[in-house]
Amino acid sequence: MRTPTLSGPPRLPVPRPRESPSIRDRIAASARAEGLHTTTEDVVRWLDERRRSPEFDVRRIPFDALDAWSFAPGTGDLVHRSGRFFAVTGLHVTELGEPHGDGPARDWHQPIIEQPEVGILGILAKEFGGVLHFLMQAKMEPGNPNVVQLSPTVQATRSNYTRAHRGAAVRYVEHFVAPAPGRVIADVLQSEHGSWFLRKSNRNMVVETTGEVDLLPDYRWLTLRQIHDLLRLDNTVNMDARTVLSCLPDAEPDGTALMPDVELLSWFTGQRTRHHVRARRTGLGDVPGWQRDRHAIRHEHGRYFSVVAVAVAAANREVAGWTQPLIEPTAPGVVAFYTRTFGGVRHVLVHALAEGGFLDTVELAPTVQGVPLNYAHLDPADRPPLLDHAATVADAALRYRVTHSEEGGRFLNAESRYLIVDADGLPEVPVEPPDGYAWVTPGQLAALSRHGHYLNVQARTLLACLRCLPA
């Protein structure tokens, strides 16, 4: 008979700090530091060299030249034969505005991208010389107006990193699929463009490593200061990098605001409940007001966007060549944060905006978000507030003006002029916010960006841009 062994009480897990006490200081230090491995000027030259590479080629093709893509019988949806990647389908949206149908209703039909997979947008961080650096990639995307832009370490759909395309493995993805405990700086599901994607989310991640990392030719270690410098250049830091950067903890959180956080959350919840949006999928072949020929699907009045097809060659991608559909806007957009100072604290004017493709009806958007050409046929009183003003705002009021392109893997030449406007001296901008708008601090936006589906992708871009401005 075995004698039972005595043991002590079970060892209980030890609680840890809810947030690394040093992470905000380390982010602030990186935002002040020059890079140890390369200068910002060298990064600009490196990107220019990659853009001139003969390895990259994008050309338009008719739909019948698409390989592995076709219009599905019955629905007319544009689909890939594998059933993976994404599809272009139809959407019917009805926005009643109020829970019981009060107020004006909007009703429209449109093509939209359906991509139910959750992709990974991940930036790898590592400390060099006591300063956090971030591993950024010179990535070719077929829709970029200048082909190559600075992107996250990993920018991949699930189909890509599970190798549904049967191409090469996604580099560095192992750091993000199962990150080690204590190494995650940011990890949050965020939406993509609610006007062009149907309920699409990506996992936005920043993960730190202390191990050795083999540096591949299309990658560079940069400090946050260097990335901020590059955010001041047109079409240099891509959308996926901007959204990940917006999820970093704020280096200097605000202490006061016009609305305390609980009031802001209550206001936002109220905005979500007052908007009643029905979004129903339809077949792409049954979208009224849209016309298809061999080369494009276009709106009958030439507004909004088109669906087109391209053939791509890119020697440094997981697959060297492919064809695919892309969405091409009809004209550039204007996206702006208007700012005011209240009691010495800078605030930005945000808009609780409903878009047909959002997972949860409403997200916080910039003060202005739109394409002026799409509203040119309307009377000025019927256009979005401040859209005309933002399109013609005087240089003296601009704190930031840079052209950024949107996601180059799905959108062709989709550019917007991103603005940060100082409204302290502008009588056109009301101190009392219009219905559906609120004055909030950048720190409040930063706190919300660490949770999913509060800030839309345009607001997250402008939050990243706010951080590159002098205090």
Architecture blueprint of SSEs:
Blueprint: H1 23-32, H2 40-51, E1 56-61, E2 69-71, E3 78-80, E4 87-95, E5 106-114, E6 119-128, E7 131-140, E8 148-151, E9 154-156, H3 158-161, H4 174-177, E10 184-191, E11 201-208, E12 219-222, H5 224-230, H6 239-246, H7 261-274, E13 277-282, E14 290-292, E15 297-299, E16 305-314, E17 321-329, E18 333-342, E19 345-354, E20 362-365, E21 368-370, H8 372-375, H9 387-392, E22 398-405, E23 415-422, E24 437-440, H10 442-449, H11 457-466
Parallel strand pairs: 6-11, 18-23
Antiparallel strand pairs: 1-16, 2-3, 4-5, 4-13, 6-7, 6-9, 7-8, 7-12, 10-11, 14-15, 15-16, 16-17, 18-19, 18-21, 19-20, 19-24, 22-23
Helix pairs in contact: 1-5, 6-11
Overall pLDDT score: 93
Principal-axes geometry comes out as: globular
Q: Strand count, sense and closure of the main sheet? A: 7 strands, mixed
> What CATH architecture of the domain at 261-276 and 329-466 would you give?
Alpha-Beta Complex
Helix/strand/pairing class, anyone? alpha+beta
First-last Cα distance: 76 Å
Q: CATH homologous superfamily name of the domain at 261-276 and 329-466?
A: EvaA sugar 2,3-dehydratase subunit
- How many β-strand stretches? 24
Please report the number of helical segments: 11
Pfam family, one: Hexose_dehydrat
InterPro entries: EvaA-like, EvaA-like_sf
Domain dTDP-4-dehydro-6-deoxy-alpha-D-glucopyranose 2,3-dehydratase: 41-248, 262-466
Region (Disordered): 1-23
What this model shows, in words?
Helices cover 18% and strands 33% of the residues. It starts with 22 loop residues before the first helix and ends in a 5-residue tail after the last helix. It has a domain at 261-276 and 329-466: Nucleoside Triphosphate Pyrophosphohydrolase (Alpha-Beta Complex). The strands form 5 sheets. Strands 6, 7, 8, 9, 10, 11 and 12 form a 7-stranded mixed β-sheet that branches. Strands 18, 19, 20, 21, 22, 23 and 24 form a 7-stranded mixed β-sheet that branches. Strands 1, 14, 15, 16 and 17 form a 5-stranded antiparallel β-sheet that branches. The model is unreliable at 99-103 (pLDDT under 50). By secondary structure, it is an alpha+beta fold. Strand 18 (333-342) and strand 19 (345-354) form a beta hairpin. The protein has 11 helices and 24 strands. It is globular. One of its GO terms (molecular function) is lyase activity. This is Rif-Orf18. Residues 41-248, 262-466 form the dTDP-4-dehydro-6-deoxy-alpha-D-glucopyranose 2,3-dehydratase domain. Pfam families: Hexose_dehydrat.
